[in-house]
Task: structure prediction
Amino acid sequence: MTRAPRFIGYGFMVGAAALAVAMREGHVTEVGPLPAVAVALFLGMVGVMLVFTDLMVRGLYAQVDVAKRAAPPTDPDGGPGAD
Result:
């Protein structure tokens, strides 16, 4: 599984932060027809979604992998149907 979506998400968050700094210094007020604040919020939101989704999926895969590698549970009675 590739880490590209997470790195793209980090890039979006860095872009949002850079846009926020440019807005604070007064260099940017609009990005095309949209206010710069809306673009910065959207970039940051998409970036966070990509990063968190990638991390959650990796955590889920790790849990599934551990469950597959675990020994099957042993029943002290001998299991169902044992007399």
